[in-house]
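Single Protein Entry

Contents — chain, fold
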Amino acid sequence: MSNVVTSGFKSLNQDALFGQIPRLSGELKRMSNRLSDQVELLKEKGYEDGYNAGYENGLKAGDTEGKRAGLILAQNQAEADRRREAAEFMADWETMRQQFEASVKEWFDRSEEVLAEMSMDVVRQILASELEINQQYALEIAKDVLQHITHARRARIMINPADFALFESHRDALMVQSRE
C-alpha cells in the first residue's frame, strides 16, 4: 500500500482507513443501539410522565367531581331529613293538640258534673234553710211549678206534713193555677 502525502496533511494509510470502517460500523451500531435504547427510555419516560400527569389530573378532577356530587347528595339528604323531621314534628304536634283538646273537654265534662252536683247541693241547702224560715216560700214554689206543667191532667204535690194546713188553705188557688 502506498502512503499518500499531501502538503499540510498527515499521511494516511489507506489500509488503516479501510480497516477502521468495520470498527466504525460496529461503533455506529452500538451508538445507534444506545440511541435507540435512549429513545426507548425517553419514550417510556414520556409515557410514564404522561400517564402520571393524566392520572393526577383525573384524580383531581374525580376528587373535585366526587366532592361536588357528594355535597349535592348530602344537601339533598339533609333537605329530605329536614322535611321528614318537620312532617314528624307536625304529626306529633297535631296528636298533642288533639290529646290536649280531648283532655280539656274531659275536664270540662267532669267539672260540669261536679259543679252540677255541687249546685244542686247548694240549692237544696238554700231551699231547706228558706223553707224552715218561711213556709210561704214552699207555696210559691208549688204555684210556679204548676204553672209550667202543661202536658199533665193531674199533678200530685208531696209536702211536709207541717205545711199541710198552709197548702190546704190555698188548695183552690193551686187548682186554678194548674189549669192556666
